[in-house]
Amino acid sequence: MNRRQFTLRTLFLLLTAVGIAVGFFAHRWNAAREAARLANAYRLLDSEIAGTEVYFRDKYLGKTPLALSREDCVTLGLPASPVTVIDADGWGEGISFHDPSLTTNPRVMFKVRANLAADYLSYETPWGSRTKTAGGWELPNGFRSKFMSRGNWGGLSLQIDFSNKPDPADKVLKVRVTAANNGTAVYSGFRPRVDVHWGTLDARWASRAHKGFWMPAEWAHLAPGQSLRTTAEIPLPATSGDYSVFATSNLFRNNTDDYLVAPGSVYSDSKLLHIP
Asked: What domains, with CATH codes, occur in the chain?
């Protein structure tokens, strides 16, 4: 190797090392700047799956982690008072912005990537399908959501179906409920019960309606590969609007206390009911 080749090779290695060092420190600087931006955000909406889409009604807001300014909240119509609390919706239908002075809880909603959508429960809205949440972690300036996985119940599933445009003269909505055991273990317990829940999309969790149905004894034992069906009748809402409807199924450990058999309440997807 002559002197010129040696010099060029040394220069190339030096430039490569400098490039790597600059890239490393630039990445660290950008990461630190982004962390500071999120920490200083007025509201921070995050999720266990980075890059999840965030919506408020029909408006696409961006992807997680998403920072909202106070001006953003005011423009969107989200509560922005100092007493507003950001928390997971009790039904798993997004993140509630709870202002005690208001009668509703506007909710921000999530939608996971299309290739992951089948792994999680969903709920229908007038603006398209969204992904159900399952609690999460409070942040100093917002909330980081978990999503309701279909794998939570070891192969158990609950499905509902009903007419989306019922005849108002019927006065009741007939909800067809199907429980299935697609797992490998027997699901058994005591006092089998199905509950149907419904309410408008901005209603506070505690203000929504539900009706419970004690099931016959055969519902206390669900073998692998077995499914059971029933029809639950709930009052047809008298007020026009869009309603979210879903069901839960429970088995208790004995005939006296209220402790549930693992894995706890089994949820269905939420379906949209429109009352003209």
From this structure: 43-148 (no CATH), 154-275 (2.60.40.2060)
